[in-house]
Amino acid sequence: MKVLITGGAGPIGSALVPGLTGRGHRVTGIARSPANAARLRDLGARHVRADLFAPESLRSAILSCSPDIIIHLATSGDRQCVEGTANLVEAAAVAGVRRVIARSAAFAYSPTSATVSESAPLFVDSPRPMRRTVRSYAALERTVLADPTIDGLVLRFGTLYGPRTLFSAHGLATLRVLRRRLPLVGEGRGWFGFVHVDDAAAAVIASLHEPTGVLNIVDDEPVRTSKWLPSFAAAIGAKSPRHVPARLAGAAVGTGGSLRYFFDQQPPVSNAAAHDVLEWRPRRRPCNLGVQ
Ligand SMILES: NC(=O)c1ccc[n+]([C@@H]2O[C@H](COP(=O)([O-])OP(=O)(O)OC[C@H]3O[C@@H](n4cnc5c(N)ncnc54)[C@H](OP(=O)(O)O)[C@@H]3O)[C@@H](O)[C@H]2O)c1
């Protein structure tokens, strides 16, 4: 297949591009910076310069490689999700591209004590600043699934670990844990659905042809913050995390309501649909969370 990818130099892309080229697919990656262009070439992709916020450049990029499929991974920012996705899907539809796979997040479900599947409501009324992030992912999903000419698939990835992620050797979460600046919030009852970047890439490869809709891509076993955070700290030689009451979490680390949600409220997420539909099985387990 001819594949056009955004975010190909990022954490999932860096595992995905070699996986695709190794299977004989021809991959072209969109990036703006020379550094990411060079990285895409090192990974085995061709590079085309385009900007998600410049629709004309997207049309040119698509025309230059006439892809069978677009894989949209550059979605870690609100503007990328909302404006970038709208521009990309519109350009894809005009060019007659039939399939788009886009990256969303599995850490945006409303708090509940039950294990949630893809039909559970997203936390669109969460406190700021998280509300904006959740609504941006919801907008991305609507855009990808709404166009009747496009077979859209949304992959809701869990919290990534592995190379180039927040949990890599120099990743932000790792550095914060080492400095004891990532506290255990409340009782640490929030459930994390981690997923290794290699497993995330394998899920994309398993979905190149079908299905449409929404799938959670998380490890088999969700793990509570009260379990993984102290274990991770010990694994990287950090002191035990401090404890912070839930109501003070925002003030303690300057992230408003987000950290309270992630560490004390987010529900466990099921990957049963991905098991069934993709026949995808994560090969890593959360106990492998550590410095890569
Ligand atoms: N599921 C999760 O755990 C999750 C979710 C979100 C973020 N994160 C974390 O956030 C960090 C950043 O994620 P990421 O690297 O995937 O970030 P990203 O900004 O979504 O993706 C970066 C890639 O996208 C390209 N890109 C960004 N904006 C673009 C634009 N306007 N037009 C065209 N290309 C654009 C970049 O190239 P150019 O800049 O050269 O254009 C680069 O190749 C990582 O540590 C990740 O673990 C994690």
| CATH class group of the domain at 2-160 and 194-220 and 269-283 | Alpha Beta
Q: How large is the radius of gyration?
A: 19 Å
CATH H-level superfamily title of the domain at 2-160 and 194-220 and 269-283: NAD(P)-binding Rossmann-like Domain
Heterogens? NADP nicotinamide-adenine-dinucleotide phosphate
Note the main sheet.
7 strands, parallel
Q: Provide the β-strand percentage band.
A: 15-25%
Count the helices. How many?
Answer: 11
SSE diagram, text form:
Blueprint: E1 2-6, H1 11-21, E2 26-31, H2 34-43, E3 46-49, H3 55-65, E4 69-72, H4 78-95, E5 99-105, H5 130-146, E6 151-157, E7 159-161, H6 172-178, E8 184-185, E9 191-192, E10 194-196, H7 197-206, E11 213-217, E12 223-224, H8 225-235, E13 243-244, H9 249-253, H10 258-265, H11 272-278
Parallel strand pairs: 1-2, 1-4, 2-3, 4-5, 5-6, 6-11, 7-10, 8-13
Antiparallel strand pairs: 9-12
The structure holds NADP nicotinamide-adenine-dinucleotide phosphate.
NADP nicotinamide-adenine-dinucleotide phosphate binds at residues 6-11, 30-33, 36, 51-53, 74-76, 80, 84, 105, 157, 159-160, 165-166.
Task: Describe this entry's structure for a reader.
The protein has helices at 11-21, 34-43, 55-65, 78-95, 130-146, 172-178, 197-206, 225-235, 249-253, 258-265, 272-278; strands at residues 2-6, 26-31, 46-49, 69-72, 99-105, 151-157, 159-161, 184-185, 191-192, 194-196, 213-217, 223-224, 243-244. With 292 residues, it is an alpha/beta fold. The protein has a domain at 2-160 and 194-220 and 269-283: NAD(P)-binding Rossmann-like Domain (Rossmann fold, 3-Layer(aba) Sandwich). The protein has a seven-stranded parallel β-sheet with strand order 3-2-1-4-5-6-11, with helices on both faces. The radius of gyration is 19 Å and the shape is globular. The mean pLDDT is 93. It binds NADP nicotinamide-adenine-dinucleotide phosphate.
